[in-house]
Amino acid sequence: MKRPLVLLAVLGLGCASRGAQVPRYDVLIRNGMVYDGSGSPPYAGDVALLGDTIAAVAPAGEGGALAGASARVEIDARGQAVAPGFINMLSWATESLLVDGRSQGDIRQGVTLEVFGEGWSMGPLNDAMKKEARERQGDLKYEIDWTTLGEYLDHLVGRGISPNVASYVGAATVRMTMSSALIGARKRVSPSTSAAAKIVWSTSAAIA
Question: What is the pTM of this model?
Answer without folding.
Answer: 0.69
